């Protein structure tokens, strides 16, 4: 009888211990869940370009976001039909792979661990990933909506974002809406450059690897400039650098050289002959283009737009790249083209 009572007591004690541990674990898990839920914040991303959408994807995958809103005043069709090409270097590729980006399912091409694709294709892919995350996070993509004081006033107090990422490009004015300075400070790159672009409607929007050429010299003897003499001079500055990029339909070219007092550079900086730079880009493209695309001729050359002369390349930085709005307890990060090269694509 005593042994039975002892057995029942032991059983009741063990059962009580198990129940107590289970209640403790469940209570702790519940409290941890509440803490994690309360620690999650709402995030507003202004701008749905490559940087804005990448920032949104980082926020979603962090597990610390309760609500994510992506805002852009452009509608979806205007956003995704952009013909410009984006080049992702190996560091960017590794970073995006960690965010779940599958480059095998994205239109583009590889060259030396760099990935090239159209900006519209890249944006469409990131938007599709964000839309797949709606089951985990309250994701709201509001295209065709301008970020303004009226928009902020319509946000309910309990839904006000705690983090705002401004990634609306170099021409955006979202900073002024938040009362932040949108001024830039400008500095020289100690280089000169020129740009050109051409659209060929008979070609496809196929991403292509970049083409680069260095130490280029141009025969301008017909214009009274003898470059060869300077080229043979060991003290002469290095020649021009050329880059050809973009899709087969929308081709872009950038020409740059270090700042120098060489005769050719002086001449190209001050020339009044508007056809000179066009001829330089024309001959350079035909010399370095890919084998599978057609040469530029007099007909296609008519559609080329380019700089009239060499200009000084300048780099600009936003004076304010981060801020904290104390009254509203909001952290603001200014990203995207916070640093940009004025009038020069590179």
Automatic annotation (TrEMBL):
Species this chain originates from: Hippocampus comes
Keywords associated with the record: Membrane, Transmembrane, Transmembrane helix
Residue ranges crossing the lipid bilayer per the database entry: 6-27, 39-60
Protein name: Si:dkey-234i14.6
């Amino acid at each position: 009888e005593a042994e039975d009572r002892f057995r029942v007591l032991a059983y009741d004690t063990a059962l009580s211990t198990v129940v107590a541990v289970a209640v403790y674990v469940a209570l702790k898990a519940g409290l941890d869940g509440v803490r994690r839920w309360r620690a999650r914040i709402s995030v507003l991303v202004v701008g749905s370009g490559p940087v804005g959408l990448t920032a949104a994807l980082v926020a979603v995958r962090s597990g610390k976001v309760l609500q994510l809103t992506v805002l852009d005043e452009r509608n979806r069709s205007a956003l995704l039909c952009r013909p410009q090409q984006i080049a992702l270097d190996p560091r960017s590729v590794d970073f995006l792979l960690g965010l779940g980006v599958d480059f095998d399912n994205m239109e583009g091409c590889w060259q030396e661990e760099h990935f090239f694709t159209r900006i519209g294709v890249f944006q469409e892919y990131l938007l599709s990933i964000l839309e797949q995350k709606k089951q985990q996070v309250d994701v709201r993509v509001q295209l065709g909506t301008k970020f303004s004081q009226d928009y902020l006033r319509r946000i309910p107090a309990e839904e006000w974002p705690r983090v705002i990422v401004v990634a609306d490009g170099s021409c955006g004015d979202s900073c002024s809406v938040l009362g932040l300075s949108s001024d830039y400070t400008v500095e020289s790159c100690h280089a000169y450059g020129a740009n050109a672009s051409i659209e060929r409607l008979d070609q496809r929007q196929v991403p292509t690897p970049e083409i680069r050429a260095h130490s280029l010299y141009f025969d301008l003897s017909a214009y009274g400039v003898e470059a060869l003499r300077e080229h043979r001079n060991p003290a002469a500055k290095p020649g021009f650098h050329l880059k050809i990029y973009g899709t087969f339909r929308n081709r872009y070219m950038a020409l740059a050289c270090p700042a120098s007092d060489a005769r050719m550079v002086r001449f190209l900086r001050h020339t009044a002959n508007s056809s000179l730079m066009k001829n330089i880009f024309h001959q350079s493209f035909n010399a370095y283009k890919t084998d599978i695309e057609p040469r530029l001729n007099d007909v296609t050359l008519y559609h080329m737009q380019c700089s009239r002369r060499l200009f000084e390349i300048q780099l600009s930085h936003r004076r304010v790249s981060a801020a904290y709005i104390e009254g509203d307890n909001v952290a603001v990060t200014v990203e995207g083209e916070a640093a940009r090269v004025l009038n020069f694509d590179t």
